[in-house]
Amino acid sequence: MILQDAKTLLEVKGLHASVNGREILKGLDLTVRAGEVHAIMGPNGSGKSTFAKLLAGHPAYELIAGTVQFEGSDLFALTPDARAKAGLFLGFQYPVEIPGVANSQFLRLAYNTVMAGRGKDELDPLEFDDLVRERMKLLEMNPNFLDRSVNEGFSGGEKKRNEILQMALLEPTVALLDETDSGLDIDALRIVAQGVNSLLNKDNAVVLVTHYQRLLNYIVPDYVHVMEGGRIVKTGDRSLALELESRGYDWIVGAGADKAVTA
Amino acid sequence: MTTVAAPAAHPYLQHLLEGQSGLAAAPTDALKALRAHALERVSALTVPTLRDEDWRFTDLAPFTQKRFQPAAPAPVLDARALKAFAPAEALTRLVFVDGTFQPEAGGAPSGVTVTALSSADAATRARAAALGTLAGFEHQVFPALNTAFLREAALVLVPRGVAAAQPVHLLFVSTQAGVAVHPRVLVVAEAGAAVTVIEDYVALGGTGYCNNAVTEIALGDDAQVKHYKIQREAPDAFHFATTAVLVGRNARYEGTALSFGARLSRHDPLVTIAGEGAACDLAGLALIGNRQVADTHSTIDHAVPHGESRQLHKTIVAGGAHAVFNGRIVVRPGAQLTNSGQQSRNLLLSGKARVDAKPQLEIFADDVKCAHGATVGQLDADELFYLRSRGLDEVAARNLLTYAFGAEVVERIALPSLKQQLAQLVLAGTSGK
Questions:
Q1: Do B405 and A57 touch (CB under 8 A)?
Q2: Residue B110 in this model has a pLDDT that exceeds 80
Q3: Which pLDDT score, from 0 to 100, does residue A145 have?
Q4: pLDDT digits over B275-294, tens only?
Q5: Which of B26, B234, B316, B424 is deepest in the core (most CB within 10 A)?
Q6: Is A3 touching B (CB cutoff 8 A)?
């Protein structure tokens, strides 16, 4: 929801970044305030995922120019783990499998590490078990996911639910959800979206990076941005997403943005 | 009296034989003859060098630069000192301190004989007749040395059809500096018997010592043995070990070997699939750092048809450490329908760490299935980033992934308290190296 006098959580200015020496982001600007839902859309290779990973601190993505203020401080001065503790969350497009580490162990370690970083209480295994089971209900997850190795052998939908479960536990101020809808069937999409919606409040914000309008039927955005050639070339409200759905990207892309060629 | 042999040809071996001639007489004629024969072989053999095919990755120089003495009389250790190593599930334990048996209160699982050779009566010694028959030493100098010193052994004898209710813990404690000790184990699981044996090497004050162990395990038809060998020696110690296993018809041997300690360690598991339908499942994990060397040279010998073998060997190598794995699989002529699979997985944690991993398949039968694979890699950058994005700092993320890599082997240990101890050791090892 768009609120009057809402606090600015994320302020991106003139962002240029590269991966493997190739410039992908070319002057991206974005302001996200508390309470808002933003959707970043755009064709493949426009730089959407690069933007999400750069903000979370993936080492392969290199900042060339520009600034990102996260709640008023320089995001790039923080290590990836410090960003998580500060309240930034990235929901991965392809969550990584970690055989040998039980999901419950991983979730509690992440929770306690982040909470300790915020000066909050850590939970012992029993206390954490209560918390995680309650949050899992939100996502209609079977408790046996706790005993399995992190994401190992999970279906695409199960991995995405596990991502949103982490979001529910870590309670970020800004969640960047990278293609959270990809690979989900309609039921899983509904459940994941309900989970995200239930976590939204007037103090936090979500940036959805998505290729398709479909997700936005369930998580209604306040702003829709179209990315092309490494920057945002058009911003509108929800109706823009519907227009993209019917007309495709070409009518915007043709409007003079640099052609991006990267994946 | 011990036979007086001709001086060993090799001066270093001569030095290692110091104290051998002063050993008490062997308790039986068979052992006396065995010892004499072993002494002869030591005298004929030399210390392996990098020119020996079986030792071409492992330089023994750090070992041969050292002089070892026979152990002085062992101190009697307080049970409390040993408590840290005792898994709660293993109620039966034999403790050897610097090679000397230390009797303790406590019984064996019902129907099972667990005793030191030195305390065994004639009937028990007769049941331990396999001692010295499984581990060959014609061409292997370390088992030959061990056998030349054979005076004491841990005996675990499980009669026909008996399943030992609790695991048996064999604890070898080193307390002295610079001594050479030759631990010996015999496990006999008669037809249909089942037992779990933990062979555990620890240091309590010992430094710069050498353990040169031989373990023999005989499985009768349909027997089942789970064997956990845990090498947690002092960081500057030397550890040589041969594990010779004979698996009878439809019997199953599960061996898990964990190597954490020692400046230089070498383990030679030799499993013979001797009866049709026999199976072995081997797993190894070496976790080393600094300048440690851990070498595993295994042989699985399919001597008869319808055998099955599985092997997983993992190494985690940090600092300037060096891991070696040579996995030899032999399928003899006529050992048809053998099914064998071997995996070697290696994780290098530093640019100076090194691993040599080599499968060695010698297949002389045509209707067999033998799969093998080896990988060498580093921690995955995407996995690291995933953990860091969840708040773990670089060190914690690396430790968790390293632990996860080793967990597959540690998870095989069916004793929760021991598994917990070892998991802690892996976590500590990954952060300390």
A1: no
A2: no
A3: 93
A4: 999 999 999 999 999 999 99
A5: B316
A6: no
Measuring CA to CA, how many Å separate B196 from each of B165, B168, B217, B287? 9, 6, 12, 23
Tokens of B35: 């010892």
Which ipTM value was assigned to this complex?
Answer: 0.94
**Which residue among A60, A149, A166 sits closest to B390, beta carbon to beta carbon?**
A166
Report the predicted TM-score, pTM, of the whole model to 2 decimal places. 0.87
A79/B388 Cβ within 8 A: yes
Q: Is A206 helix (H, G, I), strand (E, B) or coil?
A: strand
A90 contact B CB<8A: yes
Residues of B with Cβ-Cβ distance to A113 under 8 angstroms: 390-392, 396
Q: Report residue B399: phi and psi, to 5°.
A: -60, -40
CA B311 to CA B253: how far, in whole Å?
A: 12
Nearest to B406 by CA among B372, B367, B433, B373: B433
CATH number at A8-98+156-253: 3.40.50.300
| B7 in a structural domain | no
B140 domain residue, yes or no: yes
Say how far apart CA B239 and CA B85 lie, in whole Å.
Answer: 19
Under 8 Å between Cβ of B66 and B47? no
B358 pLDDT band, cuts 50/70/90, is very high
Contact B352, B433 (CB under 8 A): no
Identity at B31, one-letter amino acid code: L
Residues B125 and B273 in one domain: yes
- CB-CB under 8 Å, B389 with A81: yes
* Per-position b or e across B388-415, b if 16+ CB within 10 A of its CB: bbbbbbeebbbbbbbbbbbbbbbebbeb
The domain in which residue B76 lies consists of 54-379
pLDDT digits (tens, 9 = 90+) for A83-115: 999 999 999 999 999 988 999 999 999 999 999
Residue of B398, B390, B340 whose CA lies nearest to B365: B340
